[in-house]
């Protein structure tokens, strides 16, 4: 495999890695566990997607007009007017009506198993492709030289 | 493989010149089975979210199909030189196209970054599959047929799982 194709294979594995990390970060952030929070909930809205009740988009509207997408369990535990506060990686969210325990969502748990395997498979495919192509091109060069 | 076929830039899709052009080489089989294995893992560990493997498979199938069309349009003598650009450029173009579709046609509530990342992950696997099949030159007919079948089947399965 020429160095340019090796770069392409490495680039595609890097793309897979970025997508896997992006998936994990977005799913983790919806639990708010990795976030540092300090704001008041102005309102909340649950928008339906393709599968109502399964892939709903649960949004908290904040006082500064920003929106934060959270897991359904957390969405149900909060009320408009709640003041929220927590430090990064705290497993408890302080609210105006008492602490709320935070947990990783089933989505994050599942993705944390699937994503590392997917990236490892992508790396394996890239390595096998690189090895096979190098051999094939080496044979072709030998035939031409012979 | 005949000398004529080699002169046209044909190989057995990774088996290399002189390989048996009637069979699909191991690295190509691995590259085709890997995304199916990932889709199986999605269903096993995220069975409640069938839209995740749906987006992954649709991203894989659409990208592989687009790269296949580029390969067919590419002059034979340029295949070896263009494989890399088609693999990475096609994947990036399909990631961009997927982002546009996710933000417009398939936008039900908000732009969902997880849907986008899943379909982009599929595009990366398609780029690797394309590189495995065409890295040494124009793939053999069985590899091309298997690629077309895989692209259509995964695209259809992707829509099935995303919308069922």
Walk me through the structure:
The complex is a heterodimer of chains A (146) and B (164). Chain A is elongated and about 80 Å long. In chain A, a hairpin with a 4-residue loop joins strand 2 and strand 3. Chain A is an alpha+beta fold and 146 residues long. In chain A, 50% of the residues lie in helices and 22% in strands. Chain B is mainly alpha-helical and 164 residues long. Chain B has a domain of 109 residues. Helices cover 72% and strands 0% of the residues of chain B. At the A-B interface, helix 1 and helix 3 of A face helix 2, helix 4 and helix 5 of B.
How many DSSP-defined strands of chain A? 6
Query: Can you tell me the overall shape of chain A?
Result: elongated
The SSE order of chain A reads: HEEEHEEEH
Could you estimate the helical fraction of the residues of chain A in percent? 40-55%
Low-confidence stretches of chain A: none
Tell me roughly what share of residues is in helical segments of chain B.
over 70%
Outline of chain B: globular
Q: What structural class should be given to the helix and strand makeup of chain B?
A: mainly alpha
Helix-strand string of chain B = HHHHHH
- What gyration radius of chain B follows from the Cα positions, in whole Å? 16 Å
Which structural class do you get from the secondary structure elements of chain A? alpha+beta
Rounded mean pLDDT score of chain B: 86
- Biggest sheet details of chain A: 4 strands, antiparallel
Indicate the mean pLDDT of chain A.
Answer: 90
**Proportion of beta-strand residues of chain A:** 15-25%
- First-residue to last-residue Cα separation of chain B: 45 Å
Quaternary structure state of the chains depicted: heterodimer
Amino-to-carboxy terminus distance of chain A = 20 Å
Give the largest interface. Answer: A-B, 54 and 54 residues
Roughly what fraction of the amino acids of chain B lie in strands?
under 5%
């Amino acid at each position: 495999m020429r160095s340019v194709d090796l770069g392409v294979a490495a680039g595609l594995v890097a793309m897979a890695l970025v997508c896997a990390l992006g998936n994990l970060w977005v799913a983790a952030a919806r639990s708010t566990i990795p976030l540092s929070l300090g704001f008041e909930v102005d309102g909340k809205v649950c928008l339906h997607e393709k599968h109502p009740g399964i892939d709903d988009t649960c949004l908290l509207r904040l006082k500064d007009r920003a929106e934060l997408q959270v897991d359904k369990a957390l969405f149900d535990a909060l009320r408009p007017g709640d003041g929220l506060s927590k430090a990064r990686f705290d497993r408890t969210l302080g609210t105006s009506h008492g602490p709320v325990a935070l947990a990783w969502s089933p989505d994050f748990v599942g993705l944390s198993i699937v994503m590392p395997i997917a990236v490892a498979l992508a790396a394996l495919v890239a390595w096998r492709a690189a090895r096979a192509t190098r051999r094939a091109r080496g044979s072709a060069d030998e035939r031409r030289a012979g | 493989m005949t000398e004529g076929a080699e002169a046209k830039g044909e190989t057995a899709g990774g088996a290399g010149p002189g390989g048996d052009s009637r069979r699909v080489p191991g690295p190509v089989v691995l590259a085709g089975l890997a995304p199916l294995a990932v889709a199986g893992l999605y269903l096993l560990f995220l069975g409640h979210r069938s839209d995740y493997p749906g987006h992954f498979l649709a991203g894989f199938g659409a990208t592989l199909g687009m790269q296949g069309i580029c390969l067919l349009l590419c002059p034979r003598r340029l295949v070896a030189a263009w494989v890399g650009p088609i693999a990475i450029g096609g994947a990036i173009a399909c990631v961009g196209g997927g982002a546009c579709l996710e933000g417009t046609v398939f936008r039900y509530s908000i732009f969902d970054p997880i849907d986008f990342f899943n379909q982009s992950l599929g595009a990366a696997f398609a780029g690797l599959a394309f590189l495995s099949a065409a890295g040494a030159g124009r793939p053999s007919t069985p590899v091309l047929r298997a690629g077309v079948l895989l692209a259509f089947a995964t695209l259809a399965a992707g829509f099935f799982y995303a919308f069922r």
